[in-house]
Hints:
The complex is a heterodimer.
Chain A: H1 3-13, H2 17-29, H3 33-41, H4 46-52, H5 67-74, H6 86-89, E1 121-123, E2 129-131, H7 135-148, E3 155-161, H8 165-181, H9 187-191, H10 197-213, E4 216-217, E5 222-229, H11 241-251, H12 259-272, E6 312-319, E7 322-330, E8 335-336, E9 341-342, E10 345-346, E11 350-351, H13 352-364, E12 368-373, E13 382-395, H14 403-414, E14 421-429, H15 432-438, E15 445-454, H16 460-467, E16 472-477, E17 490-502, E18 509-517, H17 522-527, E19 533-534, H18 537-541, E20 545-555
Helix pairs in contact in A: 7-10, 13-14
Chain B: H1 3-20, H2 28-46, H3 60-64, E1 65-70, E2 80-85, E3 90-94, E4 107-111, E5 113-114, E6 117-118, E7 133-135, E8 140-146, E9 150-154, E10 159-164, H4 167-170, H5 173-178, E11 186-189, H6 192-199, E12 203-204, H7 205-211
Antiparallel strand pairs in B: 1-2, 1-12, 2-3, 3-11, 4-8, 5-6, 7-10, 8-9, 10-11
Helix pairs in contact in B: 1-2
Pfam family, one (chain B): GCV_H
Protein name (chain B): Protein Abitram
InterPro entries (chain B): Abitram (IPR039169), GCV_H/Fam206 (IPR033753), Single_hybrid_motif (IPR011053)
Amino acid sequence: MSSESEAADVNSYTAFGGEDMQLFRDAVRSLPSHVVKDLLSIGVCMRCIFRLFGMHGHVYSCSSPSSLVMCAILGEPSCPEEHMAVSSLKGDEDKKDPSSSDDSEVEPEICSICLGILQFIYYDAKGMLVKKRSAISLALSISEQIKKEGNQLDSFSLEVSIPPVIQENEHNIHLYMKRKYRSELWFEERLSKCISTKEALKFAMANLLEKVLDVKSGPSSCRIRLTYAQTKPSSMVPNLAAGGEGCKRRKTVANPGFDSVNNKLVDASNECFDFSTTNRNALGESSTNGLEDHESSECIIFPKDKVNEPCHLVFLYYRTPIYIGGRYLKFSRNVSQTRWIIDDERMGEASVEEIIGGNILPACHGDSYKFHAAGREDIDVRMLGSGRPFLVEIQNARQVPSEALVKEIETKINNLNTKLVAVKNLKMVANEGWTLMHEGEAEKQKQYCALVWISRPLEDQDLQSIASLKDLQILQKTPIRVLHRRSPLEREKIIHWMKIETIAESSQYFLLHLCTQAGTYIKEFVHGDLGRTCPSIGSILGCRAEILQLDVTDVKMDCFLVE
Amino acid sequence: MSNQSFDESNILETKLQDKITQKQISKRVPDFDQNQVADEELHKLLLPDVRDLPLIPPSSIETNFVSYFAPDFIKPGHDQYVYRHANGLCVIGLAPTHVAFKDGGGITAVDFNVGKSDRSGIKVTGKRKKNAQHFESNTALCKVCTQDAFYIVRCCVKGSLLEVNDKLIKQPELLNSSADREGYIAIIMPKPADWLKVKASLLSLEEYKKMREGS
């Protein structure tokens, strides 16, 4: 963004530049001026001064005035004469580019507490030093990056993360002020209201971002995350154990469904953030994480040769995962539920998750998807009837699909000419969709239809003996076909009811309809798995039984039943 | 799948009907019709075409396992089978030509207490199959007794013993009636490399049949 257009944008957003200046001036003047001058002289920036004194609100968004104006506000007599112009005194700051760099004489180049964070000075992702010098400029830059990816927001939540060294710097300043101004009247009252650097930055940025992005800030699934990290230690260094912990804590930011986004962030900030959270000052005296006061010793709080390095800013915009749920049907006996690859070869011709997820993801312009279903069926088993509940979780969707778009996706999937999979009742669901699906999973009943062959002709008696068994308890040893990856256990399962449907032209084939407890292995219940499932259809009918085909006809769950 | 469009047009029909005949026809009837249609559609999918069905379908063993045979294992006449599943697990048992079946009266007892331990006492737990004993191919699994004699059954395959068929203790007659299914002896999990070594010495079903022709 050229500085001209940026200046123009900045001006358009700060149409009330004059009001801002008034706010700023009043704020400065409300503070004891000798303290302000003193703090400025030891390298504290104006916004840190504001927050040390507990100021809230809009004043943080105001652009820093030029040094001339600062002098005037402070009533400082020793200002450079050549800039003395009456118009400036009247506060015609909106005519002047607010990002002029004249103020290095009054305000420090880099604040010794916030290391330039509240001065909007930082190293960007490419390692270039950026000096925005105004909140609005940073806000515009952030907004540009967000919109570049085609993101659509309906709100946002601002998250800020700063390196711990700032807390230490602040503590040092507190000590300094305590020592110097303890006796003054305002001390107790005002200093106790000190607000944190994070809060001040949020004050500075939030309402400007609201204007620029044209949405409200607050709890939101759209997250704007500003992570400041140190590029190198601000003074010498040992990596104390506590420091190690600090690093670890940062690495395990636990945010479910946030993996790819988090990895990017962690990689970027870890590059610069390997250093201690405590440091030694020039006298070799260590300050501790416990932030004790070293009242007794004459320690130098600010070694004269201390160099304040700005922080590295990693800006991240992401959306928390969105969920789209529904029920799926599978008509093919050659389609697995999830992608199944053995030795680089795909098993089956397609997968339910790829067909569904692969059609939802592009519509949301997300980074990736995860497929969750309430149970699963084998590749050669069809899923019919009301379908099986599923959820597709989309990471970092740039656009949240509308109801109409979701309907379109449903139609699209159902009209694919391969006709392998269909979906029903597709719609966006809130985070509760997850618990809804897994609630009481073990109690859910499933209904099946199996094509069975027996080694002797079917008799009328058989239909009766099968139909009469209600809530039959069976014992299943872990089927041999899954024994390589599951624990060898014996599981009790219940067959709630069964019904034989004869097939007209055959005496040894029939359809077996049955309803069983979740987790029952149906195939093994029919053929007996070498006697390891007991009783089995074969043992009940007293002959050999084989299963040729299996279909799931009902997954008895309440979720995702309606559009 | 035409179910969906069918459902939707049914819903429209339903709404119309409701408006016309509010008091007379109960709301339940149109819903029932709708479900019935769905059920009929479903049923059409479920019913197989009998012409596609084989007279005798392949058994679950034929479908899920590859059968191998070890003739005269260690001792002559001691024919055993090894059914190998695609997941690597091997089911071990007595082949139909095993000498034990030639004794009058068939098999009368099975004892897993051979070698150093009672094979039926081992408890294997967990996905990693903890506590599974590692046996060589000639390690004894059990001994089967007939009226006159007893015969040692061995692993045939080097690997971890996952399970023995302890039903045989109480029901040794399973070996007489269905040694190839419910009368299996044990399940062993060989390492891939060990399987390849032993495979070379085993016979396929065809080879085995040929060898034992007439016995």
